Amino acid sequence: MANYKLNINNEPYEVEAEPQTPLLWVIRDEVGLTGTKFGCGIAQCGACTVHLNGTAVRSCSIPVSAASGQQLTTIEGLSDDNSHPVQQAWLDVQAPQCGYCQSGQIMSAAALLEKNPKPTDADIDQAMAGNICRCGTYHRIRKAIHTASNNISNGSK
């Protein structure tokens, strides 16, 4: 066991964990932020997506030791009230069905729009590849990303 200093959603946390403990379990079990979901445990589904220094990563495959001292953002860190443009677009177009994958989808979409505020369908497909939605709401997810892009470009970021 070792102590790690984490900066999650601009809040400092000190946790004790084994160095190879997946960041996902530290975020959920030690810190208590349960918006990040467990899906597959092998970085293939995207349910556990968080931002590490602004880049979308799969928290189930990142050891806590690699995240120490880095800037982490979870779904809870996008906004306090679902006012982030991506979250608002998700609500506006009613993107989720069961909702389980949506925090990972939203985190991937937010990272995409931070880097590319006007993505094409091909850009969206590439950035969202590997985020699996068992309900198949991909067309609504794409529409939500375009809606968020339009909202951002119109100054509601």
- What's the CATH architecture name of the largest domain? Roll
CATH top level label of the largest domain? Alpha Beta
CATH superfamily of the largest domain: Beta-grasp domain
Ends apart, CA distance between termini = 41 Å
User: How would a textbook summarize the main sheet?
Assistant: 5 strands, mixed
Counted beta strands: 5
Radius of gyration: 15 Å
CATH topology of the largest domain: Ubiquitin-like (UB roll)
| Tally of structural domains | 2
Would you tell me the structural class of the helices and strands?
alpha+beta
Global geometry: globular
Strand content: 15-25%
Number of helices: 7
* Strand neighbour order, sheet with most strands: 2-1-5-3-4
Helices and strands, in order, run as EEHEEHEHHHHH
What percent of the residues sit in helical stretches (DSSP H or I)?
A: 40-55%
Low-pLDDT stretches are none
Give structural notes.
By secondary structure, the protein is an alpha+beta fold. It folds into two domains: 2-78, Roll (Ubiquitin-like (UB roll)), CATH 3.10.20; 85-153, Orthogonal Bundle (DNA polymerase, domain 1), CATH 1.10.150.120. It is 40% helix and 16% strand. It is built from seven helices and five strands. The protein has helices spanning 23-31, 64-67, 75-78, 85-92, 102-115, 121-128, 138-153; strands spanning 2-8, 11-17, 49-52, 55-58, 71-73. It has a five-stranded mixed β-sheet, with helices on both faces.
